[in-house]
Write a structure and sequence with these properties.
The chain has 430 residues and is of the alpha+beta class. It has three domains: 41 residues; 118 residues, Orthogonal Bundle (Helix Hairpins), CATH 1.10.287.70; 213 residues, G protein-activated inward rectifier potassium channel 1 (Immunoglobulin-like, Sandwich), CATH 2.60.40. 31% of the residues lie in helices and 22% in strands. Strands 3, 4, 5, 8, 10 and 13 form a six-stranded mixed sheet that branches. Strands 6, 7, 9, 11 and 12 form a five-stranded antiparallel sheet that branches. A hairpin with a 5-residue loop joins β11 and β12. α4 crosses α7 and α5 crosses α6. The chain starts with a helix and ends in a 25-residue tail after the last strand. Pfam families: IRK (PF01007), IRK_C (PF17655). GO terms for molecular function: inward rectifier potassium channel activity. InterPro entries: Ig_E-set, IRK_C, K_chnl_inward-rec_Kir, K_chnl_inward-rec_Kir_cyto, Kir_TM. Belongs to the inward rectifier-type potassium channel (TC 1.A.2.1) family. Keywords: Ion channel, Ion transport, Membrane, Potassium, Potassium transport, Transmembrane, Transmembrane helix, Transport, Voltage-gated channel.
Length: 430
């Protein structure tokens, strides 16, 4: 017996027991019966429900760029969507869009079939099928099914067979003209809808890759947040730019509280500013300075801090000229402190070209045991001493952070929640 059948059998037994029990037992039996049903229904629901890994992230934006924000309390929102009908149809899921296309054509065929059938009925065509002297409006149409077929042949202009209109009937030409013109508009609108859905630039974002994790490390004496970005296509985005923001709680001295406050988070691609040239994967870098929303965040804070990093890559599709936007997000547990992206570029001497290995696109290596925030590092840089008494100290005679020594052999518990992919490949020289 399957688990589903066993659950139903157990519920039936529990439901019939209290029918012959005492009043005191009825209450307890009913409670147990409801509890059994609740547990078994939950089991059946979970068995058929496919769990979305994104549900555990608790983020505003999914890794694929779609939003996880539910709008409630909207007044007359359906009327507003209908006022913007074309965009509403374009934004529909494919199964609903195809259903709309099939139903619109079906309704138009049936509507004009009714008109043709009424015209033939008023002319007495169906009562004089065997009368050779009767002047028919529709020759060869003897039923409503024949009227549907005639309507389809007229609107699609595939040509008439045994059924065709009679020009001597006064209503034939106006109705024929009306169906041909309206059918042309219906076909244009529906085919345009399908074409626009297929050619939407948002699908171009599927070939844009963001690294699985964001990393924080020291680079050029500054604490930086880095993300790897790549493009799978050979036709790249034109005039692409990157924008980042941090979403976290914010309150003002006046008592105003914003649970989803947006902080600017500037990223640069090497020395190009916010402009991105994606002939090969690039490292996006955000310098954590006094203007950064991450200025006072320390490694242990990643397990308790609540914020979300959202990135937008905007550019023009080279082949179509349309604007495309790719999005992704990172939550605190997806930020690796003291790591660096492993190099995936190597020069192929045999073919005299650069080789990019996307198999290691998400690979990172542990490089620095940084236990301080950017704010604390700035204080250390200014004072030359470590107020926290950790393993971070300035070398003798050092004047910059580049001379800081780290104890790379010790690992704090702040990395216990992180699983870092290790690449077995050896370092390749240029």
């Amino acid at each position: 017996m399957s688990q589903h059948s066993a659950a139903i059998k157990e519920a039936e037994v529990a439901g019939t027991l209290f029918l012959f029990a005492d009043p005191d037992e009825v209450k307890s039996r009913r409670k147990n019966w409801r509890e059994i049903l609740r547990r078994k229904c939950c089991f059946i629901r979970n068995y058929f429900h496919k769990e979305d890994p994104e549900d555990k992230r608790k983020s505003l934006v999914k890794k694929n760029g779609s939003y996880r924000v539910y709008m409630a309390g909207l007044n007359q929102h359906k009327r507003r969507y209908l006022a913007d009908l074309y965009v509403t149809l374009i934004d529909l899921e494919w199964r609903y869009a195809l259903a709309v296309v099939f139903n619109v054509f079906l309704v138009s065929f049936l509507l004009f079939a009714v008109f043709w059938w009424l015209m033939a009925y008023n002319n007495g065509d169906f009562d004089n099928l065997n009368n050779p002297n009767h002047d028919f409006c529709l020759l060869g149409v003897t039923s409503f099914a024949g009227a549907i077929l005639f309507s389809l042949e007229t609107q699609t202009t595939i040509g008439y067979g045994m059924a065709y209109p009679n020009a001597s009937c006064a209503a034939t030409l106006p109705l024929l003209y009306l169906q041909v013109v309206l059918g042309f508009f219906v076909e244009t609108f529906m085919l345009g809808l399908i074409f626009v859905k297929i050619a939407r630039p948002k699908y171009r974002a599927n070939t844009i890759l963001f690294s699985k994790n964001a990393i924080i490390n020291l680079e050029n004496g500054k604490l930086v947040l880095q993300i790897r970005l790549g493009d799978l296509r050979k036709s790249h985005l034109v005039d692409a730019s990157i924008t980042g923001m941090i979403i976290r709680r914010h309150s003002t001295p006046e008592g105003a509280y914003y649970p989803l406050y947006q902080f600017n988070c500037d990223f640069t691609a090497n020395g190009m500013g916010d402009k991105v040239f994606l002939l090969w994967p690039v490292i996006l870098t955000h310098i954590i300075d006094k203007d950064s929303p991450l200025y006072d965040i320390r490694p242990p804070d990643l397990s308790s801090e609540k914020f979300e990093l959202i990135l937008y890559l905007t550019g023009t599709v080279e082949s179509t000229g349309e604007t495309c936007q790719a999005r992704t997000s990172y939550i605190p547990k997806e930020v690796l402190w003291g790591h660096r992206f492993e190099r995936i570029e190597e020069y192929d001497i045999g073919h005299s070209r650069w080789h990019i290995d996307f198999a290691g696109f998400d690979d990172v290596v542990y490089c620095q045991n940084i236990r301080h925030s950017a704010k604390e590092l700035d204080a250390i840089k200014e004072s030359g001493t470590d107020h926290r008494g950790s393993d971070l100290s300035l070398a003798e005679g050092a004047t910059s952070l580049t001379a800081l020594r780290y104890d790379l052999t010790s690992k704090s518990s702040m990395y216990d929640h992180v699983t870092v992919p290790r690449s077995p490949r050896k370092e390749r020289p240029y």
